[in-house]
Amino acid sequence: MSAVIIDGKAVAEEVRADVAAKVAALKEKGVVPCLAVILIGENPASVSYVTGKRKALAEAGMADKSILLPEATTESEVLSIIKRLNEDTSVHGILVQLPLPRHIDEKTVTAAISPDKDVDGFHPCNVGKLVSGEKCFLPCTPHGICVLLKKAGVKTDGAHAVIVGRSNIVGKPMALLLLRREYNATVTVCHTGTKDLASITRQADILIVASGHVNTVTADMVKPGATVIDVGVNRIPDATRPKGFRLVGDADFESCSKVAGAITPVPGGVGPMTITMLLWNTLESARRATLLCSGN
């Protein structure tokens, strides 16, 4: 048995083409969807992520009002910039790249962003709406996973979804999203305090691994025919590669792919969907703003 590979790159390209077409249609009405990404400092990973986001914005035909700030920027200065962007009607989305320098409080900064421009879906208001099942900006990675499941024809209604990891960015919102009636899954969340993890993961029809550790899930932990969604991105040394390392997920792809019915690779699985759904949220914000301005 060999698992079907869920091609996140191909799905992302399909969704981005749809986004670009809708952006072009909005431009004809005089509205240019715009995202402002705030990057503080020069963390290599953060710089790489922001570069990728800005490239995606350009490809989608969106406006880019990103702001790059030095490491020494104070919290009050960041909050002042966010306030200005909140009031700027030409800006539809605001994203502050994490992690932040130690002298800046993440919760304070996140809460300062207008919920109507919180395209990351991290504002307490949007988190509350996610919990209560109201319409809101959905966190990009969980939303992207749901799109992957749908495109791959994976049935969620009545399925047992097991999530390994309880982070605020993936684990918790993923559980809340799958619990919504449109997905209607039965959800179990596992974490570092879970006893006998394998006995639970083997019950999963859909197994989502977001632990942040290599080989958290191996073949013996996967129910035959299950769908495995690997959210992890880990660097491991590899002298055969030009950069001296290669990327792997949190699940052992080699062994799990021989048991699972479908599986996402790393790279090329969940990763491309995260920025894609950020573009989707920015587009949605611009569309909402257009409706408000038209009085509809």
Could you list some keywords that capture this structure?
6-stranded parallel beta sheet, 4-stranded parallel beta sheet, globular, 296 residues, alpha/beta
What does this structure look like?
Helices cover 41% and strands 16% of the residues. The N and C termini lie far apart (53 Å). 42% of the residues are buried. Helix 1 packs parallel to helix 10 and helix 6 packs across helix 7.
Query: How many strands?
Result: 12
Quickly give the structural class: alpha/beta
Uncertain parts? none
Instruction: Specify the overall morphology.
Output: globular
Proportion in β-strands: 15-25%
Q: Tell me the strand order in the biggest sheet.
A: 1-12-9-8-6-7
Our measurement of the CA-to-CA distance between the termini, rounded to an integer number of angstroms, reads: 53 Å
Would you list the SSEs in sequence order as H and E? EHEHEEHEHHHEHEHEEEEHEH
Total helices: the number is 10
Mean pLDDT: 95
Helix proportion range: 40-55%
The radius of gyration is 20 Å
Please summarize the sheet with the most strands: 6 strands, parallel
